[in-house]
Amino acid sequence: MLLGKVHLEVGVVGKLAAMANLAAIITAVVFGENLANIFASQGEVVGQQILGVMVMGDWVVRREELSMEADTLAQETVGN
Fold it and tell me: pTM value?
């Protein structure tokens, strides 16, 4: 049963992280990267509180990937 609970928590973290990522990308495009980093940091804190340090390594990598995507989107938006 513990395994089921862990998977449920991972699903919750994934959904929260996805929402934070989406908010970060939209915010980066509209308001700039500094505000987007605030949203990404909040997602990181949620992941750490629920599952501990093991989640953080993957989240940091994913956050950096999304930060690069957000930068690209912002540059394309400004360029147009």
Answer: 0.30
